[in-house]
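User: Please predict the structure of the protein below. I'd like the answer in C-alpha cell form so I can feed it into my own downstream comparison script.

Assistant: Understood. Taking the following sequence of 331 residues as input:
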Amino acid sequence: MSSRSKESRDKITKAIDDFNPDIALVHNTWFNASLSIFDVLKEKNIQTILKLHNFRYFCTKNFFHKDHIPRNEICSACGQCSSRYRIFNKYFQDSYIKSLMIILYGRRYFNLLKSGNFKIIVLTEFHKKFLSKLNVSSERISVIPNLFDINAKQLQIKMSNREYVVYGGRISEEKGIEELINTFLSCNFHNLYLKIIGNGPSLSYLEDQYSSESIQFVKEVSNAEMLDIISNSKGVVTATKLYEGQPTLLCEASLHGIPSVFPKSGGIEEFFPNEYPLSYNQYDYEELKNKLIYLNNLDDSNEIGKKNKEFIENYLDEKKLIKDLNEVFND
C-alpha cells in the first residue's frame, strides 16, 4: 500500500463527502490504508483520532538494521533478532522490494505520529510511555482499552479436577511456543496437559517435533468454542517475546474466573491486580516453570481467578470506558 495514491485519495475524499462526519476514528492504517486519509481529514478540518493496537510502526522507521535492532537483542515489537551480517532493515524476510516499500511507508507514518495534529488512543499506559520516549507528545495520547462482554459465566468445576492449561493464538517463533512447550514438559506433570490452539508458520514444525501425550495441538476454533475451552481449563499461559497490547485471551480467562500465567512484558500487567502471583520475568523459563507448578497446585477456592474476575470487570467497565472515549471526542 503506497503512502500516497491519487486513487486512494479520491476514494477517501468521496467517502468523507458522502458521509460528512464530525469525527473520524481511524484503526489499523499501518500498511493497510493510504496515508492520504490523514491529508484529506486535515484539509476538511475533521477531528481525527488514531487508535494504535500494536507497535509495528517502531520496526519500519529506519533503513538500517542496526537502528531497528541493536546487536545481540530481539525486537519486542516484531520478534526479529539482530544479525551482525545484515545492513538493510529487511522487515519482510522474503522480499527486499516489499521491505523497502514498508520502510518508505513506515517513515512517513512515524512522522505523522510525531507531528500530526490528531489525537491518539492506545490500549495501555506502557504504550503511552513508549510513544512518549519516541518524542510523541503525551498530551495527544489517551489510554482506553477495548471493551469486552463482561457477562461471562463462571463454571463450578473444581480446580483440582481440571486437566489442561491453554495457549491460544498465533503459532510462531516470536510467541515463544517452543520455549513454553519445553518448560511445560520439564514440569513432568502427570495430571495436566498443555492444549495449544491456533495456526501459524511454526505449527507443522512443532507438531512434528513434540509428539507427546502432554501436548495437544488444536487448529483454529470458533470464538464460542474457545471460550468453552478456556472456562474448563486450569489456566491460560503465554510465553510471548513481544510487547503485547491488550491480551485478549488473558482478559477472556479473567472474565471467566480463570487464572493466567504470563511474562512481565509490555502492558500485560495492567490488566491484572497488583502483585499478581503468576507473572514471571520475560525469558526466565525457570521462573515460568515454577509458576506452572504453582498453578497446578492451586486449591479449589481459586482465589486468584476470583480476584482476576473482579479486577477485570471493574477495569473494563463499559460505562467508564465510554465516558473516557467521550472525553477524548469532546476535548
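That's the full C-alpha cell string. The longest strand covers residues 23-27.
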